[in-house]
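pasting for ref
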Amino acid sequence: MLTTITPFSLIMTCTSSWVVSPLQPPNIYGLYSSNAMYLAKYGSIAPTKENFDELKAHYRGQRDSFRSDPRSLQELTAWKQADHDFDYQLLGIRYYVAERLSSVYGKPFSKAFQRLHSEYALHNPSSLILSSTPHSYIIGNMASYDSRQYPLAPTEKRPEGQGFAHTLVIPRARVYNVVDPDATKNACFLLKEMHAHFLNFWSLPHNAGKTALLARARKALLDQDAKLLSSAPHAAYTDPIRTAIFAAFEQKSVEYLHLDADRDFVFGFHVFPENSIGHLHMHVFPSKEGLREWSTRDYDYKTVPLEAVLEVEEEDAAGE
């Protein structure tokens, strides 16, 4: 049984059965007060947003718009109550999870408001939960990081992650998006807990957390490889490059295991209405260019870093 935690004093259980308690993460909040420091870490992660201040303004504007709209708040209340018969217009149709994803887990979702991540442990195999606390889960991306495994037309969106071993941290409670008031209440406790959860998991003894994350990434790669081989046209396409794909994975695995959790990862959100899944999830992926090779850049423009969200909330709380 998981022990109730206080902020950043986590007792975590994971698939490797390691337990760690307590571990204090570095104090990163407020660290990126200058645009230069932000760019030094994130580089070109947000190519269409000129600087950190613009990212903050983007989040603040989207948050205020959502929280001041009566219809959005009405639908949010219905969703939190798991009202599957409510007539969702803003939250339930535009951001509907793709039909093909609902078949991945072999269980139906609610008829009107399917949500891939809500009540995650009920809808998904336990093997997909890499780590858990009383507040959050760490799960691996279902898609491979390597775009070469998705032979689609250039104009189509590929589902590969934003970087090698792209990972998600999600709350156990129904929190819709980072603009949801529950995401930032109590001085952003939930967001900080999700961040600390990943840092602690990464720091588990004997590389237990790192190994679990890497194993999830490897499975995603192998699963997509099997899908390609099961289709004659796709098999013909992928056969000549399979060796290169697997060699790249092994090479990147070595670099991945030596990353610094606080310095070498992006922790970010896709802010409503630019979210694709209607449940809060923090994207975690390497910021190093070599570990983003073959991964999508299609969503970089809308990836708002955790640091930007925290600074906005701290400034607003202080009346700045």
